[in-house]
Design brief:
By secondary structure, this protein is an alpha/beta fold. It has two domains: about 150 residues, Glucose Oxidase, domain 1 (3-Layer(bba) Sandwich), CATH 3.50.30; about 200 residues, Class I glutamine amidotransferase (GATase) domain (Rossmann fold, 3-Layer(aba) Sandwich), CATH 3.40.50.880. The chain is about 20% helix and about 30% strand. The strands form three sheets. The chain has a ten-stranded mixed β-sheet with strand order 10-12-11-13-14-19-18-17-15-16, sandwiched between helices. Strand 3, helix 1 and strand 4 form a beta-alpha-beta unit. Helix 7 crosses helix 8. The protein starts with a strand and ends with a helix.
Amino acid sequence: MQARIAFEDGFILTGRSLGAVGTTTGEVVFNTSMTGYQEVLTDPSYAGQIVSMTYPLIGNYGVAAEDAESRKLFLSGFVVREASKIVSNWRTGSLTLHEYLEKNNIVAIEGVDTRALTRHIRDAGAMNAVITTESRYSDQELVALAADSQHLEGLDLVKEVIYSEPQQWCDEGKYHVVVYDCGVKYNILRQLAQVGCKVTVMPATATAAEILAVKPDGVMLSNGPGDPAAVSYAIETTKGLIGKVPLFGICLGHQMLGLALGGTTYKLKFGHHGGNHPVKDLATDRVMITVQNHGFCVDPDSLGGDVNVEITHLNLNDQTCEGINHKHIPAFSVQFHPEAAPGPHDAQYMFKRFCEMMENN
């Protein structure tokens, strides 16, 4: 079945239907990871977005339950050059990528020039698009539909991906960590458990008082989707936690900490999505290859007036802020994903650093 992807600026590609039939809209981003498509599909941070994979062959190792990073697929759509018809992996059954997307009602497209798509986004910037399998729409109607769809700026998507009630991930550990869930990936929870933490997940709707009432040794501010400045309740909760308990923020959690400390965020031209982003640790001059997934960034100049806050990490591709640290209060954050899944493991030591912070507090 034929499918089309139409961008709001009139750029249109035609391919074949993959997954569910129908029509979907979202902001298009490209992911440069060579493996880990299932982890990408199940990352809650992709809510509201259509993800295009730059690696040309996707789906060849099938789907494995243990590779899921959340309870469902939250992304709006998926784009690949070629979806493998053959599944070969001892860890999985015979479920193909097409069947997985269809089962989860995700409209996707294959057989398009993903290099041309990526170059277009790099030149023109991230924008909304429509994927459809429906022939009743003209090309002009699809472009208009994309242009009229909701953009991510000012959009709170956190409430669409979180659990409504607290969850207990791990019952035993030296340190009791509350994960402030804005759309947390499972591997963040796995990594915390692996370094000896008892892990309680509390939704982003929880207040600072409710979090402190369970007497945590530390609070993890999780990743999540959408515009960080739009999630005002999470910023207020973070403000209420600063100085009361050790804090470690990842991705959206990093942005929340930056905003709570008085900074601002801005939207990147096309974001950082993939497992090959070089980041420099300014304290050690060590360069890590990191996995990233964000379209917004903390403005380091907005924190420049606070002598208590220091920039700790820089992205070597575009010099954007990748980490901050408070000099006198136990609170730090990173924009990249130290838990990987998928991606390199260079930054996993961050979880041990969090434990050291709780030990010394």
